[in-house]
Amino acid sequence: MQRHVAILGAGPVGLDAALACADAGWPFTVYEAADTVAAHVRAWGHVRLFTPWDLNVSHRMRTHLPHAPTGDDCPTGAELAARLLDPVAALPALEGRIRLRTRVAAIARTGLLKHEQIGTDVRAAAPFTVLLDAPDGEETAEADLVLDCTGTYAVPNTLGAGGIPAPGERALDHRITRTLPPVRDPDRWAGTILLLGAGKSAQTTARDLAALPGTRVEWIVRSPAPDWGAVRDDTLPGRQQLVEISQAFADGVSDRVTVHTGAHVQSLHSDGDRVRVTLGTSQGPREIVCDHIVALTGYVGDASLYRQLQVHECYATAAPMNLSAALLGSPGGDCLAQPTVGIDALRNPEPHFFILGAKSYGRLNTFLLRAGYEQVDEVFDALAPAVSV
User: Fewest CB atoms within 10 Å of the CB: 187, 216, 309, 322?
Assistant: First the structure.
């Protein structure tokens, strides 16, 4: 008997998992909410990765696509999608296996509630029921193995100091850009921009906005002394350049970029065509009136999909507990130094349910595509003898 695999998400890791299923001869279906594969990658398609092609092409992809890009050049998201992920999705091995415009709404164990048959063979033997929002309405599908590769980019963090929405944020959500914006149109970004966040997305956006002559950036950073994610003797030039430009902005190199460290959003209010934002700072409240808000405060995966499954989440990172412990216990914060964690770190109390890719790292920001491909290897190496019986 061959068990059916449900792969949630047609991003890089989901497509790699699909190839692993095809290579193993396991029946599978990839469910993708968007109308194209690699939708999250395309959303930041104008941004160049720090990592070169050789770190972004899995060994399975290269086997199926011998002419896949190689070398030390760092692709943009658009190039990654067009030159790698689209050709992977078009491979004969995946033909008819990817369902686009089909969003997974929830997953359950057929006939069992979350608290029932804990750790028993009965629960492990029960198939999963996957609730789908398909183009023609709701439907369900069954699977024996579920790989959640849905990523995080669709679930941005909010702006309040404690991680909840700041007062006024929900009402003004339509005025807030929460993904890396392309800033090619100077007129679109004219005026004062309130930029929030200190990670690489915010640093990239600060750099790009600072190049627009009609734009002024008020950059809000929660840490009083940000290190900008600096890595000693960084081997990724693009990443190091962002650290250097961000520090230069903080030092006042540009009269159109002001960095407010040790600050957070207290509230937001509509002010005609503009937004009045009250900040909390060490010197007391401060108001800034802006034309646009770009909030790049990180992302975290949608845990509601598996609310009825037995998933043990880390209380600090929201990643699966075993994986979170392995990552937090590893030295350093460089994505290039992330360990190969092994199958036990990827297991959940729910048998045959795995969270892979960026979503598996929760709030940790050290995920690298190479780590996602290694996770796929670990799952398939561990389950291959057990899935085909």
Answer: 187
The residues pairing with 282 across neighbouring beta strands, listed in sequence order, are: none
- Residue from 54, 64, 53, 79 nearest 19 by CA: 64
Residue written as token pair 């599908």: 141
Helix segments in 74-116, DSSP class H = 77-80, 86-89
d(CA 203, CA 296): 9
Residue type, 241: Q
- The candidate with the shortest Cα–Cα distance to 51, out of 73, 67, 68, is 73
> What are the phi and psi torsion angles at 152 (to 5°)?
-130, -15
pLDDT digits (tens, 9 = 90+) for 3-27: 799 999 999 999 999 999 999 999 9
pLDDT mean over 344-361: 96
List b or e across 100-124, with b for residues whose CB sees 16 or more CB atoms inside 10 angstroms.
bebbbebbbbeebeeeebeeeeebe
Instruction: Give me the count of residues in the chain.
Output: 389
Cβ neighbours of residue 337 closer than 8 Å, sequence gap 6 or more: 330, 331
* CA dihedral over 103, 20, 376, 3, signed as positive or negative: positive
Q: Residue 213: CA atoms inside 13 Å, Cβ hemisphere, count?
A: 0
pLDDT digit string, tens, across residues 174-228: 999 999 999 988 899 999 999 999 999 999 999 999 999 999 999 999 999 999 9
